[in-house]
């Protein structure tokens, strides 16, 4: 029995839970608040980066918090739409779809916009858009907002997906960078914030050629099964965390810039992207 409890605690910590998820003797365990993290970084990096937020939420809510993610974007988005998480950190176009059609409410988003950048390897720098003709560009997921916006920018430069270049998906932004640096792809289309969070060896060998898209930052959304009053407590806890020393270190490390309220301009931009978002999500956005 003792060994079983130890193993259960270890499993919870590995999944990102930062509180004591075992009840005291004779008392039932509190149900954890599940926080889904979009898998835009490796699982280890993602959970380590967001653990301070989990700690802050636990202290404010007096409730265990469990950080969760998924092996890939499609699986994660499917779980979001299936309602598997209480709170979700999500790309803005997915978040807009979730709030319009899948029972979520927007809480906050990161102040810093998502900057899509084209990356090449240091040994094979890009000189013009023509260098991408007939080439492979690594992305995390074709339905990702950066890829959706990137297609439009590349089209403005005279490049058409499928005929002039093609995208190849990878499991994370770090993997996309690695593909480019190793020569498996000619370039990578990733967010700037994930570049600066990538392992140092990848950063050293990566060269930013051009910024090609700027979109609103990642959203924090809450499933409507979480009572409205509880959602406001979560929102207040996040805003309070931003003002702490730990919060300042978090935003300095991640370059997310803090929190802000969603605006009508954000929603108008994201609504224009919803048809393309649905198309690339296919059966996931049923």
Verbal overview:
This protein is α/β, with parallel strands linked by helices and 286 residues long. The protein has two domains: 152 residues, Periplasmic binding protein-like II (D-Maltodextrin-Binding Protein, domain 2), CATH 3.40.190.10; 102 residues, Periplasmic binding protein-like II (D-Maltodextrin-Binding Protein, domain 2), CATH 3.40.190. 44% of the residues lie in helices and 21% in strands. The chain has eleven helices and eleven strands. A six-stranded mixed β-sheet has the order 2-1-3-10-4-11, sandwiched between helices. The protein has a five-stranded mixed β-sheet with strand order 7-6-8-5-9. Strand 1, helix 2 and strand 2 form a beta-alpha-beta unit. It is globular and about 55 Å long.
């Amino acid at each position: 029995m003792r060994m079983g409890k130890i193993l259960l605690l270890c499993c919870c910590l590995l999944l990102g839970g930062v509180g004591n998820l075992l009840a005291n003797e004779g008392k039932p365990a509190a149900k954890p608040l599940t926080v889904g993290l979009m898998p835009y970084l490796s699982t280890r990096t993602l959970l380590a980066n967001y653990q301070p937020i989990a700690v802050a939420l636990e202290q404010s809510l007096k409730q265990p918090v469990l950080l969760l993610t998924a092996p890939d974007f499609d699986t994660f988005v499917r779980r979001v739409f299936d309602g598997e998480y209480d709170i979700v950190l999500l790309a803005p176009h997915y978040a807009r779809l979730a709030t319009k059609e899948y029972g979520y409410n927007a809480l906050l988003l990161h102040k810093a916009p998502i900057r899509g950048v084209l990356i090449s390897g240091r040994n094979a720098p890009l000189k013009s858009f023509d260098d991408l003709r007939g080439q492979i560009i690594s992305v995390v997921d074709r339905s990702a907002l950066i890829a959706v916006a990137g297609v439009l920018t590349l089209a403005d430069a005279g490049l058409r997906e499928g005929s002039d270049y093609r995208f190849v998906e990878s499991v994370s932004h770090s993997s996309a960078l690695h593909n480019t640096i190793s020569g498996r792809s000619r370039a990578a289309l990733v967010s700037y914030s994930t570049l600066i969070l990538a392992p140092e060896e990848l950063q050293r060998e990566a060269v930013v050629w051009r910024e090609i898209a700027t979109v609103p930052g990642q959203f924090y959304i809450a499933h409507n099964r979480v009572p409205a009053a509880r959602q406001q407590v979560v929102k207040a806890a996040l805003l309070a965390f931003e003002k702490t020393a730990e919060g300042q270190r978090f935003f300095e490390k991640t370059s997310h810039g803090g929190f802000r309220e969603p605006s009508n301009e954000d929603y108008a931009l994201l609504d224009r992207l919803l048809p393309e978002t649905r198309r690339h999500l296919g059966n996931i956005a049923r």
